[in-house]
Amino acid sequence: MHSQNVEFSNAAGEPLSGVLEVPDGEANAWAIFAHCFTCSKKSLAASRVARGLAERGIGVLRFDFTGLGESGGDFSASGFSSDVADLAAAAEWMAASGRTVSLMIGHSLGGAATVVAASALDDLKAVVTIGAPSNAGHVIEQFRESVPEIEAEGRAQVNLGGRPFTLSRSFLEEIGKTTVLDAVKQLRKPFMILHAPGDDVVGIDNATDLFMAAKHPKSFVSLDRADHLLSGRSDSVFVVDVISGWSAQYTGTVAQAQQTEPQQNKVVVRETGENGPYQNEIMIGGRKFYSDEPKSLGGADTGPDPYAWVTAGLGACTSITMRMYANRKKWPVDRLSVRLEHEKKHAEDCVDCGPRDRIDVFTRYIEIEGNLDEDQRARMLEIADKCPVHRTLENGAKVETHLVTKPA
User: pLDDT per residue over 26-41, tens digit each?
Assistant: First the structure.
């Protein structure tokens, strides 16, 4: 999959900023993800769920509502109806670009907006909410102490999630009139509700109200120990698994499972934009890993640095190569361990390093557990030097680089 920065206009002609997560190959379906109140398209829930679905073949547009994130417009002048209109504009833009939306996913207040917007979208096949309130006015509880000032002065600055926002009297009036449950009753589309029983921002009773108001087919899935913002990565993975499997029966496609077979020649590395400036997500044969830099270099230390990955590759190749040989010879090798160190040395301190000032030196300490004699152990060490990664590092390699331009 790959990400594309996109821009489209809302009903007032103001630019809305989005990110389109595009699956490799042909998309099984297209979806829109609506972020939570005062969040953005870069929230953990939005980015992780959208990317996870794209990895399973469902393309997803995540975008900033009017006045939030990188989108234009005045947040203080917008309201709940503005979010609903933005979702309609997003679906219209997607259809115009040949990506008709069949699935909409909304988180928190974005979930409430998704339910209201969904009824007017004829091509939409299914709707999912995550931690959504059954009453849009629920968000007022987040700034209840500022309501008197907003009503008296017409607007006031409130603190939400550690950030300042200006809210107007019209926002209060509009959101107070919105009845999400009426929209649920008229939805007439397959509806799935995901909610955490311990959600301390939007209580689980909201999920009960939504479920009771909805018509079949409807589903409820408990998010167990998840918090409201889905800050735990495993919770996002679970949400992606559930949505991709459930939605397939309604979008008319087969959910694309992550590949589990090894694909040694296919590795994708991309920035996550989540934890510090250097965290990268690494996809190897459908499995996900992370690389980062230590905190001393400005990273978040959420994974091995690039040299550690190279070192680990040498160690793994060494162990596997020796194991293959021992098994073929039927030698009694119980366990192999390879401890490695990497450092840069001055060339004059290194034998046979060539005409370079500095050289990368990888040092291996190999432990062979088992009843082997000295000749067998010596042969095992010879085999360690036949590891393909070892040979690549010693012989050098050519790196070919191509600039890829993704289609708009």
Answer: 889 999 999 988 789 9
In the block, tokens 């007017």 appear at 120
DSSP state of 200: S
Query: What's the domain range around 61?
Result: 2-138+172-251
> Does residue 259 belong to any structural domain of this protein?
no
Into how many domains does the chain fold? 2
Residue 206's alpha-carbon distances to 49, 196, 218, 269, in angstroms, are: 22, 11, 15, 39
CB atoms within 10 A of CB 4: 14
Strands 58-63 and 29-34 turn out to be parallel
Specify if 202 maps to a domain. Answer: yes
| 223 CB-near residues (< 8 Å, 6+ apart) | 130, 131, 194, 195, 196, 197, 199, 230, 235, 238, 239
Please check whether residues 358 and 243 belong to one and the same domain. Answer: no
* Predicted confidence (pLDDT) per residue in 55-77, tens digit: 989 999 999 999 888 999 877 67
CATH assignment at residue 373:
3.30.300.20
